[in-house]
Amino acid sequence: MSILFDIAAGVVLLSALIFVHELGHFLTAKALGVKVLKFSIGFGPRLLGFTKGETEYQIAALPLGGYVKMAGEDPTEAVDPADAGRTFSEQSPWKRLAIAFAGPAMNLAFPVLIYLGLGWVQNGQPVAGPVIGSVAPGSPAAEAGLRPGDVVRSVAAPGGAPSPVRYFSDLRDLVSPHAGERLTFLVARGGTELPVAIVPASQDDSNLVEKKTRGIIGVTPVFASALAAPAAGVAGPLQPLDLVVSAGGQAVRNLGELQAVLARAGCAPLDLEVRRGAGKTRAPVALQAVPTCAPGGAAAIVPADPTLAAYVALVDEGSPAAAAGLRRGDQLASLNGHPVRSYLDLNNQARDFQVGSRVTLGLADGRSVTFELGGRAAKDEATGEAKQLPVPGFHLDDRLGIDLAGLVANEVSLQRTFSEVAQLAVLQVWEMIRLTELGLARLVTGQLSMRTVGGPISLFTIAKEAAEAGVGTYFFQMGFISVTLGLMNLLPVPVLDGGHIVFALMEGLTRRRLSLRVREAANWVGVLLLLSLMVFAIGNDIVKTWG
To answer: Other CB atoms closer than 10 Å to residue 59's CB: what's the count?
Structure first.
């Protein structure tokens, strides 16, 4: 049943896109008075079909393509005299261009409808609101004074009008394009609104086809968890990375609630109930008379959530990090001399990790550990080629078993107008077109490996994984593949739609028909190119799938 499901996922996706593509040719040909003999989904022997009017409609055995057969399209076939004036070859260049362009155009328009539908059905779903849950230490937001619980009302770029922030995703979208630029945030806090100037930091946001950066300010829409640790020099029963679930008899769900209980306690000791251990194996432990203030009145219980601190949660057994003496509960202070205050700092610096490079971790207790980064064998998802990935051997984030959804600072119901959803759908498809065109250009110029080119096996794999992920993901991938199919068909290769468009343009400009010999020769060249590309792509698929 699993194999049948996987095959069906690919067949349905591909058949839907072929239908849309050929429908563009079919409708345009009909509208321009061209006789359509056959509308076929798939190649090879007919499985089922019917004839209506002058057109035969069929589903064929091989679902790897499709076609619309028009009268006079093949110059070597005889034409019924009754069809004079209605054959494809007799049409003016602009009509033949319109018919050829209609297929790819449908593939580019269809995703807009898909994403419009996906966006519209999301209305009413709960999403994170514009409330700040946590602020990373040392981040632009922290330096500007943003706090958990602040509500961001709007963001204004230099010289621009303020843009309202209704959802946390709006905040990300407004900040992302403005790395290094001074933005003005209107923030609501304690019944008042105040402007806050923040310059977003740059973070790498590269993908397979382009390198770019995006702006970040270091905030999340979720409160920090109640993972806690004793402050430096404070003795007591609390251990680093204990998850506090109750303090002084009051339930605690996040850091904010824990800090509220501590504030009410003054400096009096509190009984805590914690869960101790790693991940889902955390076990309940009752702690008596836990100190809440250090000498001098400073807090004796400090945050240990990875968004706010850099405590080592896990050390891989047998790793170089373990051999060097790193252990669970150690607090990082630096990495190769650069400060580490949270997982954000570590992740940013880890982008430069290389297998075998030496790493020195400075710890908050004054120790330091130095070791070489290990590596693990992996397969490049894009090319299928073997590679080595650096393995630090330790992890800061161990929030398994913590209800992260329950930490969302503010949830609101998503409500977008039809116009907003349509605009987002168009922008999404436009970005896909831009990236696909860029990828094709870099393939042609050799800046992108030809090993990234996938064939039918890759397509079926993508369809299978998307179907397993859910209906929304499946239709999202259908839209993306539709864009790729549309742009590929516009390439100026004979037998593709792009080749027909080039021929029509040449004839329209020169006012001369290309000879039958030239067209046949060009078509044979196109067929050989496509067969070569298909063989190459299938070879890539085999390498990616089975090595």
So the answer is: 15
